[in-house]
Design brief:
- Chain A: The chain crosses the membrane at residues 20-43, 133-154, 189-207.
- Chain A: Residues 19-207 form the ABC transmembrane type-1 domain.
- Chain A: It is found in: Cell membrane.
- Chain A: Belongs to the binding-protein-dependent transport system permease family.
- The complex is a heterodimer.
- Helices cover 78% and strands 0% of the residues of chain A.
- Chain A has helices at residues 5-16, 19-44, 49-63, 67-77, 87-112, 116-124, 129-141, 146-159, 171-182, 186-214, 218-225, 229-242.
- Chain A is flat and about 70 Å long.
- Chain B is of the alpha/beta class.
- Chain B is 41% helix and 25% strand.
- Chain B contains 10 helices and 12 strands.
- Chain B has helices at 2-17, 61-68, 100-107, 125-135, 141-154, 170-182, 200-216, 228-234, 252-257, 262-272, and strands spanning 23-32, 35-45, 50-54, 76-81, 84-85, 88-91, 94-97, 110-113, 188-192, 220-224, 237-242, 245-250.
- Chain B has a 6-stranded mixed sheet, with helices on both faces. In chain B, strands 2-1-4-5 form a 4-stranded antiparallel sheet, with helices on one face. Chain B has a two-stranded antiparallel sheet with strand order 6-7.
- In chain B, strand 1 (23-32) and strand 2 (35-45) form a beta hairpin.
- Chain B is globular, with a radius of gyration of 19 Å.
- The N and C termini of chain B lie far apart (39 Å).
- Chain A binds chain B through residues 115, 117-118, 120-121, 123-129, 131, 135-136, 139-140, 217-219, 222, 229-230, 233-234, 236-237, 239-241, 243, and chain B through 69-71, 100, 104, 107-108, 110-112, 114, 116-122, 124, 126-127, 131-132, 135-136, 141-143, 145-146, 149, 161-164, 166-167, 180-181, 184.
Chain lengths: 243, 273
């Protein structure tokens, strides 16, 4: 069996048509993992020990079971106790929660790297806990781990074919159907690989750039991005000087 | 045992004298594991009083101010500020451990400058100084900015408003940190070895800012320091700590020029040598 260009060109649009679905599922799951990961990070640091302990075991449990098993559990087993999700939601939530446990580790490493003095200064300035988290700690904890977070976006993207197991029509599912109908798998599966490469590679380059930027200081970043912080503050100065 | 009794009476006498004190430590002990850092501290600071804490490292002087800033919790004893217990809350007649709300209310009277500055690196100098006035005191942005610019001018950094901490020298950073704390107008300012992390040539500018501040304001100050000349210039009272206890205290001239205890004598000789 040799490569058939005509067949490949013919089926390419069919497989590629799943691109928006794949992108949608990836970003949906990524959003879930970023937010739920942050929630897990907070819960794990809760001063209410049973909650912190429970969260720790939840993370351990989710990380040490395969996502495919979790997916089956969510889609096929949960309806037994009355929770029925459509396949897209089940896929997004399962992948999102699975990766949330990794993302939570990334957040944790970022938070641990913020010097103790920042917490103490926040206390001395009498900030509330929420203010301390969102205005002092996280703005310092997250930029250095953006490359690591970005990496999980890529990993998550490459994990989307498992959704085929519950009938989500992503690249592999489409290719599989075409392959089965025509008894030719070489072209469809190759195209799937090619599509993943086409989407992954630019993202990897982008993450590399982010990584370089995150190594620069705050002042350098400000200049590069031309952030408006200066503008607004500068305005306020002028106003106060004028008044 | 008569000595112990005398000490007790003396303490009671002191407590009576210090009814008007702004800050008061009553038999405060602090233990880290097996290590007892403070062994029953009694100390009162009057409103506006400038007190220098000196002593060898490990004598407990930094712990004293860290407990007042609520960064460390005393193992036992009571610290009051403005007559109110800091770490306890009165519920009826009983004292119960303070909650965050109570701590936040009393903390408004206290400001602190750290050895390692602890500026917020992701904020401009101006935002470092306006952040708390806006979000803690609830000032408008204009009002907070006006106050902050005023304060930054006073410490000689009015031209660095849009710079980031990483662009400043150590001495400049520490002056920003002083502005950041003073802009909140606390009743007592705590200085924790604020020149120890600085290159020698930068020490002077920071001490000068504190000296000016001490002369201009009626804030009380507690200064943990190894700079004896500075203590002499700024402090109304110098307290010498040794092994978690007050060994000797009095006017700077008495303490620094006519030390009575042998420990203080040998401690000072190391600085004069």
């Amino acid at each position: 069996m040799t490569w058939d260009w005509q067949f490949a060109i013919e089926i390419f649009p069919d497989i590629a048509s799943a691109i928006w679905l794949v992108i949608g599922v990836t970003f949906g799951a990524y959003l879930v993992s970023l937010t739920f990961g942050l929630i897990l990070t907070f819960l794990r640091r809760s001063s209410f020990k049973p909650l912190a302990f429970l969260t720790y075991w939840f993370i351990e449990f989710v990380r040490s079971t395969p996502p495919l098993v979790q997916l089956f559990f969510v889609y096929f087993a949960l309806p037994a106790i009355g929770i029925t999700l459509n396949k897209y939601l089940a896929g997004i939530l399962t992948l999102g929660i699975h990766y949330a446990t990794y993302v939570s580790e990334v957040y944790r490493s970022g938070i641990d790297a913020v010097p103790k003095g920042q917490w103490e200064a926040s206390r001395a300035m009498n900030f509330t806990k929420i203010h301390t988290w969102f205005r002092v700690i996280l703005p310092q904890a997250i930029p250095p781990v953006i490359p690591m977070l970005g990496n999980y976006l890529l990993v998550l993207f490459k994990e989307t074919p498992i959704l085929m197991a519950i009938g989500v029509g992503e690249f592999l599912q489409e290719a599989q159907l075409i392959g089965a109908a025509n008894f030719r798998y070489l072209e469809p599966i190759t195209i799937v690989g090619l599509l993943f490469l086409l989407l992954s590679y630019p993202s990897a380059i982008l993450i590399n750039k982010l990584e370089k930027r995150s190594k620069l200081g705050y002042s350098a970043n400000k200049k590069q991005k031309g952030m408006s912080v200066v503008g607004t503050d500068g305005e306020a100065v002028k106003q106060s000087a004028g008044g | 045992m008569s000595l112990g009794l005398m000490e007790k009476q003396l303490n009671n006498q002191q407590v009576a004298d210090q009814e008007q004190a702004l800050v008061k430590y009553e038999n405060v002990k602090k233990q880290f594991g097996d290590n007892e850092v403070l062994k029953g501290l009694n100390l009162a600071i009057q409103p506006g009083e400038k007190v220098a804490l000196i002593g060898p490292s490990g004598s407990g002087k930094t712990t004293i101010i860290r407990m007042l800033m609520t960064l460390e919790k005393p193992t036992s004893g009571v610290i009051t500020i403005g007559g109110e217990p800091l770490w306890h809350k009165k519920v009826g007649e009983k004292l119960v451990p303070a909650d965050e709300k109570h701590l936040r209310r009393l903390r408004t009277d206290i400001g602190m400058v750290f050895q390692h500055f602890n500026l917020f690196p992701h904020m401009t100098i101006l935002r470092n100084v306006t952040e708390a006035p806006i979000h803690v005191l609830g000032l408008s942005k204009e009002e907070a900015t006006e106050r902050a610019v005023d304060m930054l001018n006073k410490v000689g950094l009015g031209d660095k408003l849009d710079a980031y901490p990483e662009q400043l020298s150590g001495g400049q950073k520490q002056r920003v940190a002083i502005a950041r704390a003073v802009v909140m107008r606390p009743k007592v300012m705590l200085f924790d070895e604020v020149t120890s992390a600085l290159d020698p040539e930068l020490v002077g500018e920071v001490l000068q800012v504190i000296k000016d501040l001490a002369e201009e304001t009626d804030m009380a100050m507690i200064l943990v320091t190894h700079e004896m000349d500075f203590a002499r210039d700024v402090a109304d009272r110098v307290v010498f700590l040794h092994n978690g206890q007050i060994e000797e205290q009095g006017k700077p001239s008495e303490i620094l020029e006519n030390p009575k205890s042998e420990r203080l004598q040998s401690f000072l000789s190391r600085f004069l040598a």
